[in-house]
Specification:
single chain; flavoprotein; 15 helices; 2 domains; alpha+beta; FAD/NAD(P)-binding domain; 627 residues; 5-stranded parallel sheet; Ganglioside M2 Activator Protein, Chain: A; 8-stranded mixed sheet
């Protein structure tokens, strides 16, 4: 299980009244002393501001567990001088290995540590969370940041001339800016939204395990710990990630499995026997590690609906980290993204001084961070789907693609986003400082807009590993933005490839008919012209049948041999998931092949579940023709 580490040196720093105050700096209060909040405190202090961090805990004694610091944030730690001081406690993995749950190696990248440094100029490193927290706190204190422990925020008034904060001890703070870095259960988020806002379950939980080297007697397992690598085991409905910590003297294992905790329970002690039973029949190397475990905790994995804005109307509260974009651990980007947030926020505030408007700088921060953070969240859900496939045709196609690239250069969309050339450069190549600096160079003021580049949504092509030519026939791309209490959106790509992650809704792209549909992009060049789409009921209602009728004009013939892959999700619930001959599929929507150029009509009824989480979701359809 995760071990408890007390950080005794992290007592309250001196009262700000007794410290030298920077008269030309903003007064910034950061709520939360997690990794993101500490990163923000460092960068804000470096920008010349007076920073106070309020933390609920009376001492920073976090549950000890490992985390993976990827190049996009390790470069920040290096620039702050933090990484150099904790590097001896970290491990740079020499390889990254993906195993099928039975143990077969599906993918392996050797010299992973060297490749990361060569590609991105900074390391991929595995370390203990407490080591990183210690390093960040030490740097913050060096820069004059005030850390106040045992200060749970009870009230936050944003309507005053300057924000006012009252804590559980009765202490009051006033400032120019409040930074909401208070995590998944954020009080600041609720103040910004003006309502209660509970995290949503994802359907998964995590068993978190940390093994000391002296707990492991098996020579083979001890050798694995001493030789840093990242290992994944992927299987039906679950996967495992394991890696070395503390210079090869500790081993971190995270088991991701279906959630069986009661709805109101976020964390509780688990049964070691129950945990081991879940992995019966998996790779003996993994199960031997699990035999070394004597106690374990279960953590419910939660997420949040995307926020419309991270900034208060008056520009005196801004959100960051898990408080606005919590991430599943499937890409290890939660901590890394929070560090990015902190770096960008502090840097955009560098030129802002007391009496100036904060709104322009905060909008640059939001523009730089919101789209990226939310795109990473969506990628984590996709990684979950790729790693948790049940045994069957889709899993077999996935494994064929894995094995087709084993020992070879990966030059296509890949099931493991950790090494996928369409995702890894976008994740790891990000430079928070350069993103801000490019805005400040290009624009005369910090409030100017910035063009954000999004990665293509990666998926693996189930035909890519076979000697079969295929032609993707793009027909139409729609975005369904459904308002109302369900707050659901969906995207469909009918007979086409996957869309990019950029979502821009324009009234000019409204789809005709009784619907809340919008085209995601200009449909002028699509093979299918959408003339009318009707939904009943409109908008869709939980527990009722949704009837969809679409009319359009097909610009070209579609002949026998076309295939369709259709996936429909409503919230997190999969309603339809199938691959079939397109000519068989169209019979279900009142059509027959071949489809001739001309008028086309599609109909479909779907029974919606009674309870649907209020989240955004994807409706994807991909078709291709076998030539």
């Amino acid at each position: 299980m995760g071990q408890h580490f007390s950080l005794p040196f992290l007592a309250n720093t001196p009262d700000p009244a007794t410290m030298e105050r920077r008269p030309d700096g903003l007064d910034i209060v950061i709520v939360g002393a997690g990794l993101g909040g500490l990163a923000a405190s460092i960068e804000c202090a470096r920008s010349g501001h007076n920073v106070t961090v309020l933390e609920t805990a009376s001492e920073l004694a976090e549950v000890g567990a490992g985390l993976q610091v990827t190049p996009n944030s390790s470069k920040l730690l290096q620039r702050w001088g933090v990484y150099q001081k904790i590097q001896h406690q970290a491990c740079e993995p020499k390889s990254l290995v993906v195993h099928r749950y039975s143990g077969e190696v599906l993918a392996q990248e050797e010299d992973f540590d060297k490749h990361m440094n060569e590609k991105y100029g900074s390391p991929f490193t595995d370390m203990h969370r407490v080591d990183l927290q210690q390093g960040l706190v030490a740097k913050a204190k060096e820069l004059g940041v005030t850390l106040r422990l045992g200060q749970r925020v009870e009230a936050l008034d944003l309507d005053s001339t300057r924000p006012r904060i009252k804590t559980s001890t009765g202490a009051e703070y006033t400032c120019d800016l409040v930074v909401g870095a208070d995590g998944l259960w954020s009080k600041c988020r609720e103040v910004l939204l003006g309502r209660k806002d509970q995290p949503l379950p994802t359907g998964d939980l995590a068993y978190r395990i940390v093994l000391r080297l002296d707990q492991v007697k098996d020579p083979e397992l001890r050798a694995m710990i001493a030789n840093p690598q990242v290992h994944f085991w992927i299987g039906p409905g679950a996967h495992v990630v394991a890696y070395s910590l503390k210079g090869g003297n500790m081993y971190n294992i995270v088991l991701l499995v279906p959630d069986d905790l009661p709805g109101s329970v976020a964390r509780q002690s688990g049964s070691v026997e129950e945990m081991r039973k879940l992995f019966e029949g998996w790779d003996p190397t993994l199960t031997r590690f699990l035999e070394c475990v004597d106690s374990v905790d279960k953590w419910k994995l939660m997420h949040r609906e995307e926020m419309e804005s991270w900034i208060s109307e008056r520009g005196n509260l801004v959100m960051m980290g898990d408080a606005c974009h919590p991430m599943l651990p499937y890409l290890a980007q939660g901590a890394n993204s929070a560090l990015e947030d902190g770096a960008v926020l502090g840097r955009v505030l560098e030129g802002v001084r007391p009496g100036s408007s904060l709104t322009g700088a905060l909008k640059v921060y939001e523009r730089l961070r919101k789209a990226r953070g939310e795109a990473i969240v969506r990628e984590t859900f996709k990684q979950r789907e790729s790693f948790h496939m049940p045994d069957g045709p889709e899993q077999q196609a996935r494994d064929e693609l894995f094995l087709s690239k084993l020992g070879r250069e990966i030059d296509c969309a890949f099931p493991s986003r950790w090494t996928c050339p369409k995702v890894q450069p976008w994740l790891y190549g990000y430079d928070a400082w350069k993103e801000v600096d490019s805005v400040l160079r290009e624009e005369s003021g910090v409030s100017s807009p910035h063009n954000i580049h999004y990665p293509d949504q990666p998926t693996f092509d189930r035909q890519a590993s076979r000697p079969v030519a295929h032609v993707a026939m793009k027909v139409s791309t729609l975005l369904l933005a459904i308002a109302g209490p369900l707050a659901v959106s969906a995207r469909s790509n009918l007979l086409g490839g996957l869309m990019s992650s950029q979502e821009v809704i324009s009234q000019d792209l409204k789809v005709p008919g009784s619907n809340p549909l919008y085209f995601c992009e200009d449909p002028a060049n699509n093979l299918l012209t959408i003339d009318d789409v009707d939904l009943a009921p409109n908008p869709p209602e939980a527990g009722k049948k949704l009837s969809i009728e679409a009319k359009g004009t097909l610009e070209k013939d579609i002949e026998e041999g076309a295939k369709v892959r259709l996936q429909v999700k409503y919230g997190l619930i999969t309603l339809i998931k199938q691959e079939a001959s397109l000519c068989d599929y169209v019979k279900e929507v009142d059509l027959e092949c071949p489809l001739k150029k001309g008028d086309l009509k599609l109909t479909k009824d779907v029974d919606l579940p009674r309870e649907i989480p209020p989240v955004r979701s994807l409706l994807l359809s991909q078709a291709y023709r076998i030539c």
